[in-house]
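Take a protein:
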Amino acid sequence: MKKEERKFIRRLTQSEKPIIFDGAMGTLLHEHGVDIDECFDELNLLDPAAVGEIHRNYIAAGAEVIKTNTLAQTEPSSSGTAWMTRWMW
């Protein structure tokens, strides 16, 4: 196990202070001008800089855990959608 992994496990199991996660990715993407009806998951491929900027902003604000921008990205939820067909098949 790497040093960073051990440090993180200690942080998870031995600290009494809360662990700070990132927040609402979709809300911030919408604030950046992405239409609320767009597939936010597709932005990982179309505009990774925008997604990365939001992640970096959360880290700068103190987030210790960053989740992926893949809220609905499972094969059943995206099967047959235009973007899934365009990118995955």
